[in-house]
């Protein structure tokens, strides 16, 4: 029973953190059209920076090396982790958003992500290289040590609440004039520029907000697991987040969350139950990628807007002052139809 | 008799091709000035250079007393200079109404803090804008389609949206690149009248690129003729009809028919 409870808690925490990742990516891609092909790097930066702020100085006699080791209390370290991923978003934005259009931008994000991945793996003085960081201080450490299930359920609540706050924030942004500007930039950046908006600034906002949100998910992830190594944030993980958003419905926050339920939890976690075949240990992970890949292809083919497409904006409207409104609208519309024929 | 726009010896080259080759003209404040010329004369390139989408090789552009040729596009628009495109560029994945709402500058909800934490204030503003936008859509015959995705409009309807959106931005000056192309003759008449009303009502200046000389005749007080990247002539349409160069270089047979001279 207790194993089962712990398992359910882990599934829920996974769901909530993936919800946060997809909501962050949705602001970047679904709102502003920014192709961030290294989502998971921001998760990793949030997690790593939380870790090096919360852990005591590295103890060289254990052959474990990392920067900082400031031993801050976990709430402050959480903020540090989140800010770090926001700053990384800003720096990548400086390179990628100033001059580059979407496809080049995608390549820049991919390149920076790969670079940071290699750097944090090969340079073991940063975040302990390929071995990664472990025994990272968790919130409520004594509960975590003595009552792991209680800790898990506390964490379900924490990550659930954080997820709801992020969701609320994302919705507020979406329906605001700022969110509208972001979506217009997604449709045609030059035109928004020609109407007097500083599109670089607006895109940068989407980039930084999205990165910060993904970083929040990263901090939660390492707080829950207590460890992270480069194997935990490969390009494949970015692919899972993208798949979740595309399948669920870009531009729709509920869709993003539904997508992470379908892709990240049901398909990603579900495939763990396929029995291992001893002679081919890679079979299951490969199957997982095949299944998620097919899901993305099928959904783009049959439902390109995702399971829950972006919703049409509706506004509060007063009737028109002009009483001939409907008539004229009708007349000209008919004329238009006539042109088309 | 002051100028709102002054183009002075502007050159624009695309690689080896001189799209604008030393062009100079002015637009008087509060007028609708036509910019006509044969295909490839450089009219759209001129509109692009004024708006900031195309950078000058040399020359200067003064708008409302300020040299703007070094300013980024969005700053020119903030100064009240708004353009439309020869090929419609609607925000396809947004509704017609949203296409208009998004272009109004200075909305409080464009700042992140207001957007997230003061939605009431920004909602009140938006409601007022919706009213304004609906009036404009009504004028341009798109009211019925206000909640339709812009990508679903017909070609002609997209032209109307292009215009409505530009009007919603409340510019000091409008640069209109063939706004009537693809619009039915009956509607052209109505649109022409609306442009004239806007011009008379709010004193909005316009530079109108247009091939339809009847429209030009009706609503433009002055006409600038461009050919091969240069200003060929300038005057009222009546004066230009008797200008040999213009008739030969541009008007040719086509125009003899159209104006019947
Ligand atoms: N982006 C570009 N790159 C290269 N050449 C261009 C570009 N834009 C325009 N040109 C060239 O510049 C010249 C002027 O083009 P422009 O579009 O300004 O003409 P126009 O007067 O608007 O013609 P039309 O009446 O057909 O719209 C043409 O020879 C065109 O091929
Ligand atoms: Mg043109």
UniProtKB/TrEMBL annotation, chain A:
One of the Pfam families matching this protein, by short name: BPD_transp_2
InterPro entries: ABC_transp_permease, LivM-like
Transmembrane residue ranges: 6-27, 34-54, 74-97, 104-120, 150-170, 205-227, 239-267
UniProt keyword Transmembrane helix present: yes
Membrane topology of the entry: Multi-pass membrane protein
Gene Ontology MF term list: branched-chain amino acid transmembrane transporter activity
A single cellular component GO annotation: plasma membrane
Keywords associated with the record: Cell membrane, Membrane, Transmembrane, Transmembrane helix
Cell location: Cell membrane
Domain of life: Bacteria
Main location: membrane
Protein name as annotated: Leucine/isoleucine/valine transporter permease subunit
The organism of origin for this protein: Acidithrix ferrooxidans
Automatic annotation (TrEMBL), chain B:
MF term (GO), any: ATP binding
SMART domains: AAA
Domain ABC transporter: 5-253
Statement: the UniProt record of this protein carries the keyword Nucleotidyltransferase: no
The EC number(s) this enzyme carries: 3.6.3.-
Any single Gene Ontology cellular-component annotation: plasma membrane
Keyword terms of this UniProt record: ATP-binding, Hydrolase, Nucleotide-binding, Transport
Gene3D superfamilies recorded: P-loop containing nucleotide triphosphate hydrolases
InterPro entries for the chain: AAA+_ATPase, ABC_AA/LPS_Transport, ABC_transporter-like_ATP-bd, ABC_transporter-like_CS, BCA_ABC_TP_C, P-loop_NTPase
UniProt key word Hydrolase: yes
The name this protein goes by in its record: Lipopolysaccharide export system ATP-binding protein LptB
Organism (species): Acidithrix ferrooxidans
């Amino acid at each position: 029973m207790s194993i089962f409870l712990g398992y359910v808690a882990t599934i829920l925490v996974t769901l909530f953190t993936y919800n946060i990742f997809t909501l962050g990516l949705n602001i970047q891609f679904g709102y502003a059209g920014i192709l961030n092909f290294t989502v998971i790097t921001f998760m990793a930066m949030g997690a790593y920076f939380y870790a090096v702020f919360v852990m005591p100085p590295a103890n060289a006699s254990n052959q474990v090396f990392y920067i900082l080791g400031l031993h801050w209390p976990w709430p402050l370290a959480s903020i540090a982790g989140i800010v770090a991923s926001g700053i990384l978003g800003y720096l990548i934005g400086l390179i990628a958003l100033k001059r580059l259009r979407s496809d080049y931008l995608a390549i820049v994000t991919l390149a920076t992500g790969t670079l940071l991945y290699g750097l944090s793996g090969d340079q073991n003085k940063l975040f302990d290289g390929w071995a990664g960081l472990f025994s990272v201080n968790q919130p409520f450490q004594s509960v975590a040590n003595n009552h792991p299930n209680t800790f898990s359920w506390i964490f379900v609540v924490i990550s659930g609440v954080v997820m709801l706050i992020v969701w609320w924030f994302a919705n507020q942004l979406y329906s605001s004039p700022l969110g509208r500007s972001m979506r217009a930039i997604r449709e045609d950046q030059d035109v928004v520029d020609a109407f007097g908006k500083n599109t670089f600034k607006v895109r940068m906002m989407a980039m930084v907000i999205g990165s910060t949100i993904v970083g929040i998910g990263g901090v939660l992830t390492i707080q829950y697991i207590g460890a992270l190594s480069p194997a935990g944030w490969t390009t494949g993980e970015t692919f899972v987040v993208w798949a979740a958003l595309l399948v669920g419905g870009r531009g729709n926050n509920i869709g993003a969350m539904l997508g992470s339920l379908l892709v990240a939890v049901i398909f990603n976690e579900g495939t763990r139950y396929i029995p291992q075949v001893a002679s081919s240990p890679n079979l299951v992970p490969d199957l997982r990628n095949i299944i998620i890949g097919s899901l993305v292809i099928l959904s783009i083919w049959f439902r390109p807007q995702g399971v829950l497409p972006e919703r049409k904006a509706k506004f509060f409207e007063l009737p028109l002052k002009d009483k001939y409104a409907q008539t004229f609208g009708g007349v000209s519309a008919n004329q238009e139809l006539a042109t088309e024929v | 008799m002051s100028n709102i726009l002054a183009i002075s010896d502007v050159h624009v080259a695309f690689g080896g091709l001189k799209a604008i080759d030393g062009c100079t003209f002015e637009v008087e404040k509060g007028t609708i000035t036509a910019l006509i010329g044969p295909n490839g004369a450089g009219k759209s390139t001129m509109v692009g250079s004024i708006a900031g989408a195309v950078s000058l090789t040399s020359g200067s552009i003064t708008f409302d007393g300020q040299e703007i040729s070094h300013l980024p596009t969005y700053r020119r628009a903030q100064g009240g200079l708004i353009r439309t495109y020869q090929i419609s560029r609607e925000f396809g994945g947004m509704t017609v109404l949203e296409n208009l709402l998004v272009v109004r500058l200075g909305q409080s909800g464009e700042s992140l803090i207001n957007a997230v934490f003061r939605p009431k204030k920004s909602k009140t503003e938006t409601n007022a804008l919706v009213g304004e936008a609906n009036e404009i859509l009504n004028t341009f015959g798109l009211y019925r389609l206000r909640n339709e995705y812009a990508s679903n409009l017909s070609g002609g309807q997209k032209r109307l949206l292009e215009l409505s959106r530009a009007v919603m931005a409340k510019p000091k000056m409008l640069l209109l690149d063939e706004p009537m192309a693809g619009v039915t003759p009956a509607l052209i008449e109505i649109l022409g009248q609306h442009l004239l009303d806007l011009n008379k009502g709010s004193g909005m200046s316009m530079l109108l690129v247009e091939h339809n000389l009847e429209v030009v005749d009706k609503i433009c007080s002055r006409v600038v003729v461009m050919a091969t990247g240069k200003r060929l002539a300038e005057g009222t349409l009546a004066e230009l009809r008797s200008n040999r160069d213009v008739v030969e270089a541009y008007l040719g047979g086509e125009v003899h028919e159209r104006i019947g001279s």
